[in-house]
Write a structure and sequence with these properties.
One of its GO terms (cellular component) is cytoplasm. By secondary structure, this protein is α+β, with helices and mostly antiparallel strands. It is built from 14 helices and 27 strands.
Length: 463
């Protein structure tokens, strides 16, 4: 099926004396001629207790696709991106490009983008409000056109994600940036274009800020050094795409990136990396259901900390080339301690899913959320399933079940992408029927996830 855009109108144990008792309380849019997005009120009904088996094909990375789609704004001529997942977040980003005047075709996980006719430098505000990644376009617009007007971004309500670092970096690259009517209004101070900076050090290794400043610096005059940057694999993927377009980037994947600006980048063809968060989620699905499955393509090095934690818990994990197999059949899994951190630490995007698993493991587990202060809204819903979890600040104490899974199916509500998936995983392991409302949140980042689970033997249906 083809879609076209057309205008329409630290892991330290806390002091044991601090561990609480588990009994303590606690307007103008562009349209895509593609299948319509799922109903926001859609529900997933799961009959738990089934073992999973078989092989699952991993989709392209949602978190890599969004900045790379935005990066096509840097390019003259068409760019073709393969392995783009058909999820609501990528559809929203494609619509944002369309609102800027880009010509976009989306067919069979391939996106062709031509930005030669981009005219306005202000994308549709209502579209930007849908996804956090929509704000990425501010960097390419400033770099290529010397100006940008972009509304503050939306996305999951998992905590404050200010754009202060973005703004400070863009100013360091020679732009004047102001806030007007909840919008970032920016233009090149010299009236021509951005200028490289000798060094800009990020206050925090923000993934989004790193990606945005990389794109802007690629078209700035002269050299730029970005220090204390994020090191996530998605940063490397963006750098690889930009390099294919003619950009000069060194150090992606380390804490320092050097960029020599170019006046012109040419559209190119690129294949998006596999989604490491989807890989981790299916690994956790196998563990929570005490099953054995395989998946590909997988780059095990990108998930080494998860592989280590699950292996220590009692899972058997093997990999051969790009195929990974995980088995937890008839295993009594032990709990463990994690603290989310920027890469290569434990990914915050797997924290809710791992918490669902830990509620079925033996002993006490401790989960510390160090990235987003509001990323534990799923805890109350997991508690409805029977999980014994106590929250203290940004730390969750998970009291696992000894030798038996005591999760029980019930009605729960997803309030964000990864938290919603944790409820799906809990439902797979629970006795009886679980109804997950608000499943459209999960559709933002997982392509055909219920079909993939059904092929593995899960009993679930969308209403």
């Amino acid at each position: 099926m083809e879609a076209k855009l057309s205008p329409a109108g630290s892991n330290k144990n806390p002091n044991p004396t601090l561990i609480p008792s588990p009994t303590e309380p606690q307007t103008n849019f562009y349209q895509i001629s593609k299948d319509p997005p799922p109903d926001s009120d859609s529900k997933l009904v799961i009959t738990g207790g089934s073992k999973l088996s078989g092989h699952v094909s991993i989709s392209g990375s949602k978190n890599a696709s969004l900045p790379i789609l935005a990066a096509t704004l840097c390019c003259t001529g068409p760019s073709k991106l393969d392995n783009v997942p058909n999820v609501s977040d990528t559809i929203a980003m494609i619509s944002i490009l369309g609102s800027l005047g880009a010509e976009v075709e989306f067919s069979d996980n391939s996106v062709v983008v031509n930005t030669d006719r981009v005219g306005p430098v202000e994308p549709e505000p209502d579209l930007i409000s849908q996804i956090r990644g929509g704000f990425f376009v501010v960097g390419p617009l400033l770099g290529r056109f010397g100006e940008a007007v972009v509304s503050l971004p939306g996305g999951c309500d998992i905590g404050a994600r200010p754009v202060d670092i973005y703004i400070a970096g863009l100013r360091a690259l020679g732009s004047v940036v102001e806030m007007r009517d909840n919008k970032v209004v920016a233009h090149a101070a010299n009236g021509k274009g951005l200028v490289g900076t000798e060094e800009f050090r990020l206050d925090y290794p923000s993934v989004g800020a790193t990606e945005t400043l990389m794109m802007a610096a690629c078209m700035a005059q002269g050299n730029t050094l970005l220090a204390n940057v994020a090191q996530e694999p998605e940063i490397i993927d963006l750098a690889c795409f930009l390099t294919k377009t003619g950009a000069n980037i060194e150090g992606a994947g380390t804490d320092t990136i050097r960029i020599h600006g170019k006046s012109r980048l040419l559209g190119s063809e690129y294949r998006i990396m596999p989604d490491r968060i989807e890989i981790g989620t299916f690994m956790i699905a196998a563990a929570i259901t005490r099953s054995c499955i395989s998946m590909s393509p997988v780059f095990p090095g990108y998930l080494s900390i998860l592989i280590d934690k699950l292996s220590r818990a009692g899972c058997k994990i093997t990999h051969d080339q790009d195929i990974l197999e995980i088995s937890a059949v008839d295993n009594e899994l032990s709990g463990f301690v994690i603290a989310t951190q920027p890469y290569p630490g434990f990914p915050t995007d797997l924290q809710p899913q791992i918490m669902a698993l830990l509620s079925t493991c033996n002993g006490l587990s401790i989960v510390q959320e160090s990235v987003f202060e509001n990323r534990m809204t799923h805890v109350r819903e997991l508690q409805k399933l029977g999980a014994k979890i106590k929250i203290s600040g940004n730390t969750a104490f998970v009291y696992g079940n000894e030798n038996v899974n005591k999760l029980r199916g019930t009605r729960v509500v997803a309030s964000d992408l990864r938290g919603g998936m944790s409820l799906v995983l809990g439902g797979l392991a629970a006795d009886g029927v679980t109804q997950v409302n608000g499943i459209s949140h999960v559709d933002r980042g997982y392509e055909n996830f219920e079909k993939k689970l059904q092929l593995l033997g899960a009993h679930l249906i969308r209403l």
